[in-house]
Structure formats: structure tokens, C-alpha cells
């Protein structure tokens, strides 16, 4: 495998053909450290044909040259990875975006000998950019859905500031998107719901979605709009949670009907209890009367 290649050694000359036939960019390097033992540059001690071709150069012009003479910028993150392998001897594999060439690579780094490490770069730019294009398409479709759906959708960022407020939410609350964005969510939340929403938000932040719970928002005319909501975490391209997105139904009228029914039920229950008490009293009088006349 790559970790066994040491082109500087005659005993590994049998790997030379394999080394030069690889499609990956492969180089054998020797790190240069400053007085504080921090990596600052490296010598190219060997390189395969793919590496040489990438830089549109010749092997003679690259071998034993400092990398800083080949490129204008050496990424610090790469130097840190290289130094870690150089000092510990433990190989490492990672994905890297090379901003100098605007390319994505799958990078393998391994210890070759006392002062040398091997590095291979597999170009994965096409796949990564296709993934990014897919994510952009999904994001665009989500944006279109949020803006066109008749369902209220709103969201908050990591600081608790509103960063989503679609037209349906505008219609229900009377507050325009331009008035609510970058506003703290507590401003629109009745006090009795604060603790409940705080708990739901905390669950969303750890990737735990919540569904079918009631939430109230204060409208522009100081009334309460009631929603039946579902919440989920909002993530960036790397999968990191960046906020909470809520989507739901306006059930204000339904809750009003429910409250009205509860009031009517309470009133009827009270009347029924009064009737029962009255009837109980009449029965008692009747019993007393019967008891008296019998004597």
C-alpha cells in the first residue's frame, strides 16, 4: 500500500513503477520547523508523475525544493496534520479543501522514514461539487416551499433571534417579516408558554424533533394566535445544528371553539349540580314527611 512506499530507498525500487503509475498526487516530504518546533514549510524529496504534471513542471525542478517556492500559500492546517504524523508516526486520513487551487482532496499521510513522510492527494472535487449542487437545489426547494406554503413557518437561530417568518405567519400574526427578523423570539411569546418553548427548543438543538404541541404567538393587535406545531433542527452543509425551524397549523378558531364548549359544559354542569342538589333536598323532605305521617 501507499504507506509502504519509500522511493528514497533502493530496497523499495520495486514500488517505483507503481508509484509513478498512480492517479493520485503523491509526494515524499521532509518538514521544516521553526525555532519553536512549529512546521512552517517542507522539502519535496520525491514526487510521482501525477504530482509533477499537476504543477506543469518537471521532476528536476521540484525535487529538493521548498514547497514555498512552488506555491504562494501553504495551508497551515495541512502543515499541522503533517507534523503530527511526523512526530507520532501514526498515519492519518482526512478530507481537505485546497483554496489555492479551489479543489477538494481526500488526503492520506503516513510516516516513511526518520525524517520523511508520504502524502497522497485524491481529487474528489467533482463529487464534492455535485454534492454541493444537490444541497443548493434542496435548499432552494426548501426556500420556495417556506415562502409559498399556506402553512405558518418560522425559525430562530443559535442566539434565539428570528431568522424565518413566512407570509402565512405574517397573515396570522399581522407582523411583517421585515419587522420580525433579527428580533428575539420571546417578544412574540406569551409568558405562560416561555418555559415550554424553551424546553422544546433545547430538544431541537440536540436533534430531537417535537410534534403536535400548542404554541401561542402575540399578534400585532396584542391577541394570541394559537398554533399546532412541529419543530426540527436546522442544519448547515456540514450537519451542524444552526437553528430551530417550526411548522404548523393555525388553530386559533378551533381553540376558541374548544374554550367556548368548555365554558358551556361548565355552565351546564353547574346547572345540573344545582338541579341534583335541589332534587336531593326535595327527596329528603319527602322522606321526612313520610316518616312523620307514619307515626
How would you sum up this structure, described in words?
The chain is an alpha+beta fold and 295 residues long. The protein is built from 9 helices and 11 strands. It has helices spanning 16-21, 49-54, 59-62, 76-88, 125-148, 167-173, 177-180, 194-205, 252-294; strands at residues 25-33, 39-47, 65-66, 92-98, 103-111, 117-123, 153-157, 162-165, 210-218, 224-235, 241-250. Strands 3-2-1-6-5-4 form a 6-stranded antiparallel β-sheet. Strands 8-7-11-10-9 form a 5-stranded antiparallel β-sheet. A hairpin with a 5-residue loop joins strand 9 and strand 10. The protein is elongated, with a radius of gyration of 36 Å.
Topology:
Blueprint: H1 16-21, E1 25-33, E2 39-47, H2 49-54, H3 59-62, E3 65-66, H4 76-88, E4 92-98, E5 103-111, E6 117-123, H5 125-148, E7 153-157, E8 162-165, H6 167-173, H7 177-180, H8 194-205, E9 210-218, E10 224-235, E11 241-250, H9 252-294
Antiparallel strand pairs: 1-2, 1-6, 2-3, 4-5, 5-6, 7-8, 7-11, 9-10, 10-11
Radius of gyration: 36 Å
Q: Helix/strand/pairing class, anyone?
A: alpha+beta
Catalogue the unreliable spans.
none
Taken as a percent bin, the fraction of beta residues is 25-35%
Described by its quaternary structure, the protein is single chain
Largest sheet, in brief, is: 6 strands, antiparallel
- Distance from N terminus to C terminus (CA atoms, Å) equals 115 Å
Keywords:
alpha+beta; 9 helices; 6-stranded antiparallel beta sheet; 295 residues; 5-stranded antiparallel beta sheet; single chain; 11 strands; elongated
